[in-house]
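Comment thread on ticket #2218

A.B. wrote:
> Attaching the input chain for the structure job we discussed in standup.
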Amino acid sequence: MPLPRKDPTKSYWIEQAPSPLKDFQSGPLPERTDVLIIGAGYTAATLAYWLRAFSPADAVPSITVLDARDICGGATGRNGGQLRPISFDAYADWAATYGRDTARELIEHEVAHIPAFEALVAAEKLDCDLHVSRTWSAYMTDEEAAKGVAQVEGMRAAEGGWVDRVVGDVVATRDPEEAGRLTRVKGARGAVGVPGGRIWPYKFVHGLFAKLLQTPGFELHAHTPAVEVLPCRNSNMEWTVATARGDIRAKAVVYANNRWVEHLAPEFRGVITAARNQMAAIRLDGSRWAGGKLDEQAMQFWDGLHNNYYVTFPQYNTLVIGGAKQVLVRPTTRPDGSAGPPDLSLWHDNDDEDKNAPGAEAYFRSWPQRDLVGWGGPSEAKLAGTNPSADASTGGLWTGVMSHSIDSMPFVGPLDCERVAAGQYVAAGWNGHGMPRILLATHALAGQVLAGLGVQATPGPEWARRLRIPRLPAPFEVSPERLRRVTAAAREHAAAQEKAKAKL
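C.D. wrote:
> Ran it. Output below, let me know if you need it in another format.
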């Protein structure tokens, strides 16, 4: 029964933002709730927010959020802090797979998250270090640089003025000197920059939950793992959710537990799988970057497997970096001496949040001197944990488990299948790319949940109406046909993996 590891590595986001809600429990578990949300991260917090925002005053549903561990201790509290919409880098693939209209729909939905975050944070006065500027792709080989710039040119040729109207100001260069200056990454052979931002995700989620706890009928329960979801043995059209602290009945159950959704919903076994990422927080002390106002963020691309991404928080004199695929992806050799397929076991299908990858600390400590333009600091950088002079266990080096879905798209909507007639919903499978997808996906899901409860949704907050939020992209939707397709793909993938192992 896959559940999160009980003693995960210490995340900078969590250790440096102490919250009274970390281990919060509203009291004894209620016997009944209208909506039960399993998982207490970004998905749960924004869904609960929208449910309250869209509910009429005389029909506000009761909401209970529970998590197996502490509040926001999963992927949201362990990610990279990037708010980086996908646009040019996926346009061609999405257009080929889904058609141009849907490719635009997917990009518009992601890009809309930037003004949506700005408006929500301002409206609710959330302290979460949101900053919008530009995010860069630094291409570390000529081949990747040519590919990245060609992607921009291809999107502009196909969509014309739509690019400037929707995506915004896109900058592309094949000049290595300019690429290094723009991205601040040594050795960059080219670069593309698009509007993007960064955020302290843990603060954002805890800020939303603190607001929700001020409203009647909302409960939050840490350390309450859901064990099983069964039809209730009565005629009330409810579900019984067995937890480690007792049973709770709900009219609507929402799986917001991302990688661990398969634990309770067997439809997603092999369809949504684990992907462990490696992160570090680096002190800028002693470097030329220290004490400045640089709001830099970039990704390094060598190929489809090896990449890094960094985000700076100058107000905390800290740089957060993730990736280290050079450590996580290991070469293999066949018995005949030829190179085998890369060993991805430290990365894919890996739930080891309780340990850092061998070699990760040394890699990250040496990264600024090796890869940052104008670093000028110590050759071995300090980790930015609660006690930087101590070991990595104080928050400067950590792992987090993301999810991969078999078709690379999340699942958002009612779970319509042979096992479930009504009343179960899913929002999971974010592919390590939830920040520019979840806020507006749960906006759509909230309306679906309220409709299932028989509640007529209101127009919602004025700030959201003013934004004209895009509809949920069609590839996100859950349908029996899509479930059949991805289940078959998961079986084929498993069979191919077993065949490949047999050849080694």
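A.B. wrote:
> Thanks. Noting for the ticket: The longest strand covers residues 272-283.
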